[in-house]
Amino acid sequence: MYLSQLTIENFRCFGEGSRRFKIELEPGLTALVGENDSGKTAVIDALRFALGTSDQEWNRLEDSDFHADATSREIRIVCKFDKLSPRDKRTFVEYLTYDTESNNEPLLYVNWTAKDTGEIRRGRSYRRTEVHSGEKGDGPQFDTNARDLLRATYLRPLRDAERALSSGRGSRLAQVLQSSKMVKDGEEHDITTPLDVSDHNLSILGIAKLIDELLREQKAVKKAREQVNTQLKELALSADPIASIIKISGADAPDDIRIRQMLEKLDLALSGDGKPGLGSNNLLFMACELLLLAEEEGNQLLLIEEPEAHLHAQRQLRAMKFLQEQVRSKSVQVIITTHSPNLASAIDLNNIVMIHSKRAFSMASGQTALELSDYRFLQRFLDVTKANLFFARGVMVVEGAAENILLPTLARLIGRDFTGHGVSVINVGGVGLRRYARIFQRKDVDSDGELDIPVACVTDMDVMPDCAPVILGLVSGDDDEKWTNPRRKWRAKRDFDENATGLEQHRSRIEAKASGQEVKTFVSDKWTLEYDLALGPKSQEGAFSVGLAEDVFVAACLAADDDALNAGAKDLSEVESSALGEFAELKKGATAKDGCMAEEVIASHVYAKFAKDRVSKPIAAQYLAERLQKQLDDGKLTSEQLRNRLPVYLIQAIEYVTGSSLAEVEHPTQGEGTDE
Q: CA 20 to 30 Å from 12, out of 167, 244, 420, 543?
């Protein structure tokens, strides 16, 4: 059987009624991801209260466990178990509920309630807890034996694995081993026959009894007993013959206790030289817990909080691979919580559940707007650099390394620091932008609600001004036959109708491909990132304000000489000075051309450094970010001045993912992003 549904009301961050928490689970592995304080640990702790754990640790309810705004002081946790095996059906026969909608398939419901009665007992508030079966909790109360079979195995976060695996009373290793049939199975040694040290068929109890016998018959012990009996005979009356025996403490205890005492003498440790670290001991602890989980009767549920604790990146991936192999090869269900993009990238997207705004959003097929081909694509390309989107308060999806480098800097310089706002930038490398966006879109919004994480998809318009094809060397003039070549991949404004309806339709088509729910596509105002940065935004009067043409041009020149600069063959200030002189000449000679304003001609020449001269966009972006930062540090530029020089679509995208509403970014204070 497996836990297929969990409902939580009035427990910690989860409210009641429409604010209750409900999560659907699949067999195998489920990873709960999300930012801090989203409710992941509350889910695990709710299961610990409702089902209990195999370490039999007692969980005390505190005032803080009751939801602060609840109208009642009663916590309700309902666990639904599905796909019961014949053994499960026999074990829980009196507690089963039969699903009339699924051919009377038996289900097992565990309804755990805790009510604050207001009483004070022994100086503490008394809370009455009950565990009943039935979908509405109207079935029989679970007895102790049934509760024991429902217990889950729990691995706490930041666990002290070395201490947990050490010998001693109540050791975890003893608890794990004592539940194994292998410990109890085996023979007991016949003391009348010689001991064969190669005999490995003795049970733990057999070994204990053998040790007792060997100690009793040891020469010194036996002689001491005879001497005590001699003295005792002299002290006793002749009519009262008494004699002593020497026995091992606890030898008369029941067999289960004897077995436990033996097991509690065992340590589990790593072999090899030196003291192993926390990470290695944690792997050992997980291996120990998984040893017998699939062989136990009843609930084969493993709860792990932060399996990445103390593990470096490669070990995290290996541990996750191991867990996924366990659930495939055995009928084990594993629920983990994690903050690790490493682990999230190694888990099948179908097995991830985002916990956000106290709600569960499954990433499984049929729950999101993703298509089957999207899942296959993301399985290949959703790596650790992109998996941090599961932990963000806002997500910006970009199509290149230049945007990935530059946009966080621009956001910080205008007072919208991505780090402070919990925004992740996901570089999809020019492919799959819409696939990543659909992760955040729900298929059934009426049932699930929207996943209210703002996602901005930043993409290019890819329509160049009419003067650019000549500047880039794509054509030689207006009469060049390349203009009419239907196979050319580039497009200019003249390819769209004169009243700009076609251009706006083109923009709308780009936006519609990914936009929807909390996902919004921000299309470059004109052409590409570098061109639009150079051109600057358009004012209400129709003229272009001062853009970043000079800075982008200088950054491109620095990028072109990057190897020489890093090798010390060229001086940074000399390259900058030369670039500024070259730009001044370019600006001086620029005039309106082919229906383009002078500013558009200048911006096209700036972009030619990338498109024609093959300058690296990411390297130029790094130089540009450093250049703008220095200007602000030196007082030559203010945040507000920079904001007014940036393209409108970038400002909108940055504001959207850092907290502005969709309505606010759709009605910016600056002029519109196009002049058509």
A: 420
Q: Does the pLDDT at position 267 exceed 90? A: no
Considering all CA atoms of the chain, what is the largest pairwise distance in Å, rounded to the nearest integer?
Answer: 136
Give the C-alpha distances (Å, rounded to integers) separating 515 from 314, 369, 457, 512. 36, 12, 8, 5
* Cα three-residue angle 429-433-439, rounded to 5 degrees: 130
Q: What are phi and psi of 11, to 5 degrees?
A: -115, 115
- Per-residue model confidence as pLDDT tens digits over 33-92: 999 888 999 999 999 999 998 876 777 888 889 998 877 889 999 999 999 999 999 999
Q: What is the pLDDT of residue 485?
A: 87
What is the pLDDT averaged over residues 382-393?
92
Residues 6+ apart with CB under 8 A from 654: 396, 407, 410, 411, 414, 416, 456
Torsion angle, alpha carbons of 177, 181, 184, 185, to 10: -140
List b or e across 289-315, with b for residues whose CB sees 16 or more CB atoms inside 10 angstroms.
bbebbeebebbbbbbbbbbbbbbeeeb
C-alpha span between 272 and 281 (Å, rounded): 13
In which band, very low, low, confident or very high, does the pLDDT at 191 lie, cut at 50, 70 and 90? low
Q: Are 561 and 570 in contact (CB under 8 A)?
A: yes
What Å distances lie between residue 627 and 179, 543, 578, 584, 623, CA to CA?
Answer: 66, 26, 16, 18, 6
Q: Are 131 and 142 in contact (CB under 8 A)?
A: yes
The amino acid at residue 127 is: R
All residues at 6 or more sequence positions from 426 whose CB lies less than 8 Å from its CB, including other chains: 385, 386, 388, 389, 395, 396, 397, 398, 436
Ordered DSSP codes for 151-198:
PBEEE-TT--HHHHTS-STT-HHHHHHHT-HHHH-SB---TTS---TT
Lookup: tokens for 336:
């983990």
Of the candidate ranges 143-157, 172-186, 401-415, the one whose mean pLDDT is the lowest: 172-186
- Amino acid 645 reads R
pLDDT score at 554:
97
Beta strands 29-33 and 423-427 are unpaired
Has residue 296 got a pLDDT over 90? no
∠ CA 469-470-476, nearest 5°, is 115
Is the CB of residue 286 less than 8 Å from the CB of residue 155?
yes
Tokens of 370: 């993703």
What is the distance in angstroms between the CA of the first residue and the CA of the last residue of the chain?
63
**Choice among 128-142, 518-532, 655-669 with the minimum mean pLDDT:** 655-669
The strand pair at 74-82 and 2-9 is best described as antiparallel
